[in-house]
Amino acid sequence: MTSGGFFRKRSSGRGPAAAAAAAVLAACGAADGPEVSFSADVQPIITQHCVACHTPGGLGYRKSGRRLDSYDEIMRGSGARGIVEPGSAGSSTLILYVHPSADPNMRMPFGGSTELTKPQVELLSRWVDQGAKNN
Ligand code: HEC
Q: Residue 3 domain-assigned?
């Protein structure tokens, strides 16, 4: 593991869980590494693990109103009420919800479906830290 630039960017705005997740992400150097592609790297993970629930008719969409089936939907409301804060994985709900340190009752994929692997979580984190680009 390398130490990355994550500390410089992390937010402390969302309480102990967010701070803990940010610390773990920082320890993993989530901001380092080659550029992550949304279409080649990120979207396949989300399509496989998230979209069934997070489209109209799915449980996640019914409960949270959140679709995850396109870049625009993932980024919708980005900032104050969004789930992705470009440049800051540690303050992005999308990352905090899939992170191993998330509350098991809230961790995504919801309800004990297969969890994301550590490399998958790191990939998503790096994508956010690199600006959450539509690349
Ligand atoms: C089995 C269905 C299911 C799957 C699969 C699932 N979710 Fe969810 N998701 C939910 C439910 C239900 C909620 C609402 C939870 C609550 O508020 O109690 C939710 C809420 C969320 C929220 C909060 C939405 C908001 O706007 O506040 C995010 C972010 C999220 N999910 C991301 C994901 C990601 C990323 C994946 C894939 C790794 C995923 N979910 C997979 C059911 C699911």
A: no
